[in-house]
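Need tokens for this chain, all 203 residues.
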Amino acid sequence: MSLVRILCFVLLMLLAACASHPLDMSDDEWGALTLQQKLEAREKQAELDLKARELAVEQEKRRNEERRIARVKEREADIANGLIVEFYPAKAACIGGDKCRPRDVNEIIIPLHGLCAIDVVHIYADDRVGNRHDGVLEVMADHYRLERVDISKRSKWYQVFAGRRARNVVLKTVTDDEVQVYWVKVFGSRIDSGQIEYRVIER
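Here are the structure tokens for all 203 residues:
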């Protein structure tokens, strides 16, 4: 056995000192192997681990592509149903309480980019931040209050019916508790902008 292979084996042994034996061998099976056989077993396990990682990467790529396709189809269906504006931040927008960053932010203003007749607002949110879980969102069309929604600890969709004309949708925390907003969809129709396309707002 070459010196390089011996050094590699010693390094592998040190790295795996607290790990189980390769190829799911028992202590007796491992102890019966020669130094050369142990090195070969380690190399074989390394090959298997590499293949497993490559397979995991490919599976994640497929899942991401499936999610992307599903997202495109969902958006197409939403547009057909009158989607005006979609608020979809890369990271959940945390408002209210004292655990959110930045602090002292208790509302989200979603501009509709023109006067719109709002039919319904869909909100995906939760109250999972902090030790208290009594978050309440006030949903407004401009300055008109549509509804106050009790937000649960579990992430889920909420539906608020509007039937109002407005230029903005405003989400505001009522209690001194944090609320995380992941996604907002505003459905209805545009009135004065002449635009029929929907908008995605990210931040």
